[in-house]
Write a structure and sequence with these properties.
L-malate dehydrogenase (NAD+) activity; Rossmann fold; 14 strands; about 325 residues; alpha/beta; binds 1,4-dihydronicotinamide adenine dinucleotide; 11 helices; 2 domains; Lactate/malate_DH_N; L-2-Hydroxyisocaproate Dehydrogenase, Chain A, domain 2; 6-stranded parallel beta sheet; Malate dehydrogenase; tricarboxylic acid cycle; 3-stranded antiparallel beta sheet; about 45% helix
Length: about 325
Amino acid sequence: PARPVTVTVTGAAGQIGYATVFRAAAGDLLGPGTPVRLHLLELPQARRAAEGTALELQDGAFPLLEGVEVFDDPAAAFEGASVGLLIGSRPRGPGMERADLLEANAGIFSVQGRAINAGAAEDFRAVVVGNPANTNALIAASHAPDVPRERFTALTRLDHHRAVAQLAAATGARTAEVDGVAIWGNHSATQYPDLTHATVGGRPALEVLAAAGHDRDWVAGTFIPRVARRGAEIIEVRGGSSVASAAHATLCHVRDWVLGTPQGSWTSMAVASDGSYGVPEELVSSFPVTCRNGAATVVPGLELDAFSRERVERSVQELAEERAAVAALGLLGPRG
Ligand code: NAI
């Protein structure tokens, strides 16, 4: 049998954490051939709730679940970890300025970055879900200089799924017929869900949309804002934030990263930029990526039209501002 993989889940007693760990135990994170050992990290005040989750995980009698341990110390929680699901973060409270939010999260992600640097396994990889996810990933990476930068990613897979689903709905297609959607930039309202390379049933999505009465104004005025503001729509309709869909996206992100994207297809992930498409190398930005042998590679050579370039630049500008704010507060680690 395969060796068990240690997976550290932060914010494990929170909503997304709770929705993620049972599916991870069921094999939806690393596939049905890989046993997992779960390390649940919580704040001291939520430790008891995480212990309750651990009891329920035991009650699942999951054949792939090798063990569950609960921690409130990041150093112990990341010891030996190969996968980090960094879900816990400090949400924006009423009247909280952006600088306060960045500072509170820098406190969390710098400590976790140092713990990862000190004790995680050689093959450690992380997806940051907790917002502001891209910049939190950058902060963690800056405090983990011995871990390759590209192992710290952030979640834009939920945005990717939302874009796929909206395109399918607008064209009357099944989601399985949609391909080539891309999310660029920040996981925020400035993100750019890009349909210019997308296909529906093998035909260019923009043509299929036009035939369904949706022109490029519909893309700019309806599709893009609907995807970018879907989180707010869920809160309004459901009376709570996106949870199960975020958990699902988190599992898909790691699974594709480790096991590979389907041949001829790509997904979207926020990764340390390699300088492609004019995105500065020090930023963690969403790109279309393919994954092979555990590595994510930005899809090269895509033609960006003037509209796309402008939208990508705007979102990347926001990432640069977030990074500058964190740097000005002195919160970046030794890797900078
Ligand atoms: P939640 O508030 O239910 O859970 C967060 C948990 O994290 C809490 O149990 C809290 O005790 C814990 N936590 C906070 N600081 C921690 C630390 N330093 N170490 C360990 N645990 C810590 O929130 P929910 O709904 O689970 O969302 C989690 C995060 O995911 C939020 O930041 C949210 O904005 C973000 N999110 C990101 C999405 C994306 O697509 N990137 C989509 C949806 C949510």
